[in-house]
Specification:
- The protein has no helices and 22 strands.
- By secondary structure, it is an all-beta fold.
- Strands 1, 2, 5, 7, 10, 11, 14, 15, 18, 19 and 22 form an 11-stranded parallel sheet that branches.
- The N and C termini lie far apart (29 Å).
Length: 179
Amino acid sequence: DEIRLVADVTLTAVDNSDGDSSPSLPDGPNGLPVITSEITLEGNNHTIARGAGSPAFRILLVGGSGELTLQNATVSGGGGAAFVNGGGAIANTFGGFVALDNANLSRNSVDGVGGYGGGFLNRGDATLTNSTISGNSSAGNGGGISNYDTLTLSNSTVSGNSAAGNGGGIDNPGYRTAI
């Protein structure tokens, strides 16, 4: 399926919570439905953001059977104090696939204990092309990106991110990363 944005999107409520405490899905509420199939989200240079004063939630969660292609979009403001397990903007689970093409993940945070990947938590396969990960933060590791599987970056920028633990930009604890 393909979704094409025609305007900016401001999320103000939790769409769902994965309800699974196993390591296969990061805990915490999500702003949009869990992606469990092949989805292309064409942003047309629009932004998907968590609104000011909204409850804490990540924007997107890609399940083990999910494939997300995010093109020409900004994802901003995801995360917050209620997070346990990361991915303020996007969390990709074991077996999932994420392709960011000309995407911007900015001003996302993971403030909960054990939070990883203020901008992006990757536990599957991910490819970032012509994308920017900036201004994200984590109370744990990986202010910009926390990677636990295969991550390929091409013509992409990771800058201005911060983490209380390891990897202000990218935390890659002994896993594969191709840059």
